[in-house]
Amino acid sequence: MSGDLWLVVGLGNPGPAYAGNRHNAGFMVLDNLAARAGGRFKGHRARADVVEGRLAGARVVLAKPRGYMNESGGPVKALRDFYKVPVERTIVVHDELDIPYGAVRLKQGGGDNGHNGLRSVTKSLGDKEYLRVRFGVGRPPGRMDAAAFVLKDFSPTERRELELNVERSADAVEAVITDGLAAAQNTFHAS
């Protein structure tokens, strides 16, 4: 059933109060991918909203966990088990402080770098070798706490480029699916 299926998960926090936050970059990218796939998110018993469809010719399940960021792992594991998707065909899209705003970086595996959503996913999956599409949000200004920074909306200056950056991150997800990680890295890390 799942041999060619991909699970693409965007990390974020639920509800309108968080919708424009930097921490919700993953949700923004998944909304873009759902539009590309021509689907609408529907509730799933795995405590996530999902779209089943096709992206770049491949079968995909697009998912946004319904709980808070630090509880993302349970829904991701439940979806992976339900759809029987191997970890190497699981892509997590998330915000990344250590990458400049507007940059997109791709990798497989690695630590959580203090990101509570990644920590939860890695713990629940019992494996850190899932693919990651990292949406650069940059470091907080001055002495601002990183946790406070990611829970703030993108600045007016950042918002001018936000749609383009979301689009590029969605393109990166499709490139990983169609071309593989190494080729996608060559494309997106060069820019």
Commentary on this structure:
With 191 residues, the protein is of the alpha/beta class. It has one domain: Rossmann fold. The chain is 38% helix and 23% strand. It contains six helices and seven strands; from the N terminus they run E-H-E-E-E-H-E-E-H-E-H-H-H. Strands 2-3-4-1-5-7-6 form a seven-stranded mixed β-sheet, with helices on both faces. Helix 1 packs across helix 5 (156-179). The mean pLDDT is 95. It catalyses: an N-acyl-L-alpha-aminoacyl-tRNA + H2O = an N-acyl-L-amino acid + a tRNA + H(+).
Structural class: alpha/beta
Q: What proportion of the residues form beta strands (DSSP E)?
A: 15-25%
The helix/strand order is EHEEEHEEHEHHH
- Strands side by side in the biggest sheet: 2-3-4-1-5-7-6
| Total strand segments | 7
CATH topology: Rossmann fold
State the shape.
globular
CATH architecture: 3-Layer(aba) Sandwich
